[in-house]
Amino acid sequence: MLESIKVTERLHWPELELSKKYLLSPTDRPVSLSQISLQKLSSSVLKDIFTTGTSSYNVLLQTAEERKSPKHSPYKKPRTPGRCSSSAHGKDRGQQALGPAPLAGPERCGSPKPSTRASGVPRPGHAIKVTGSTIGLAPRPRVPARKLSSSCGVPRTRLPLLAAGSAARDGENSARKLCILSAIKPTNVDKEKAKFFKSDFTYNPQFEYSNPVSPLVLARHNNASDKFLTQAVRILELAVQKYGNYEKFEQATGGSLLTKSRIGYHVKKYMEKEGCMGEIVVHLTDDLLSRASMTVVNGRPTLTINISTAREHWLEGMLRHEIGTHYFRGINNSQQPWSSGAGRKRLGLRPLNPTEEGLASIHSVLFRRDPTLWRAALLYYTVHQAGRLSFCQLFQSLGRFVRDPNTRWDYCVRAKRGQIDTGQPGCFSKDQVYLDGVLKILRHRHNIDFLLLTALGKVSYEDVDRLVGLATMEHVRIPHFLQDQARYREQLDKIMEVNQLTDEELQALI
């Protein structure tokens, strides 16, 4: 249906460019005033946008280090160019809208190799080009509005240039931490799965890793919580009581699986609604533990979708999660004074999680007929049980809620990844952040300004009030589903009701 769709069946990127076709070309339709076109955006900025807050901690970082550029202050005002002249046009010749870049082989964790570019493709720079109107947020009370540079009457805003090492200096956004997330994916999953199934689910897999993580680092992530265990189990039991088991819940609420062409159609329609056509490269795969992930591949924002879990009634929720939350908050964050690790440290910002993943998880079920928080609850429960049980014991424990052995296997691998001998109790606890974040946001939903929370970028809801006076608001991007705040808040109340959560209960817990 979409002749320009680029599909990779497995996430093993080719060493050479195989095709010039991409899913959603920016030339598919005229660019409207509601769209923004990325212009020479450096890979370091993109890396900072997506190093946190993906839908999964199964992150594939495949960025290329660009040439070192002189450091720029995030507070430096852009120069105001003169009238359009031949010299100005000469400067702007290479500043065309950035289209999908060709895929190259994956980079390993560590020092990335310099990327090679075909002639005629603009080198990454430090600015994005923005067109359209801004949202109706109050102006900053203390900081005067920045002057906008323009080229032939088109407004343009300049993003602060992040130094190549800025992400690494940020304890939360460090590239090294993300390499850990990539390193904990076992290399022998298929072989161990065959052994496990052949043993009638009694064998504890012995996982292998190409770059094993040190025991000290793994120990920091082996800290399962039981704070919201009661709520997690209740949510799961409500779904089982109503539908019988997870498989029936999935079919009744998610609908049928979509073909590749239908996935492409829905993704294109969603991007048109959000005004981000041509900004994101899309790949389809069946080799992903999560339903989707937003990463950076060769300097381009890349959305990878697991076709084995793409259901007709759930796909738009996934797009709200990945694009409407992670991508837009990342873009907004890149123009703020706290976009670098040094800026976050100087301002004393709280960790962006659990707010980031909690907000994204809420947006996954927003507007569903039955917004049961099943996945967030099951991930929380699985991690808790993994901290106490072996792999095969965990597999049996999940049978309480999930019948299909393949689905149970996937959840067990997520919770046990990083371990070599899964016969021992232990977990990778990051997956508890989803339910943790959801419940904290629902607890404070009446006091949170969700427009500001999105506009300020990758910040905790707890920091919104004190940051608004320092923020750049001129060209923030707000997803379409947040425009009607009354309807949005009604949906939050519905999520509370369907999952049998009460304000009194959450106030006592949080």
UniProtKB/TrEMBL annotation:
Highest taxon above the source species: Eukaryota
Keyword tRNA processing: no
GO MF assignments: metallopeptidase activity
Biased composition (Basic residues): 69-80
Lipid metabolism is among the record's keywords: no
One of the GO biological process terms: proteolysis
Organism field: Anguilla anguilla
Alphabetized SMART domains for the sequence: DUF1704
Pfam families associated with the record: MATCAP
Alphabetical UniProt keywords: Hydrolase, Metalloprotease, Protease
Entry protein name: Uncharacterized protein
Region of interest (Disordered), ranges: 62-129
Cofactor: Zn(2+)
InterPro entries reported for this sequence: MATCAP
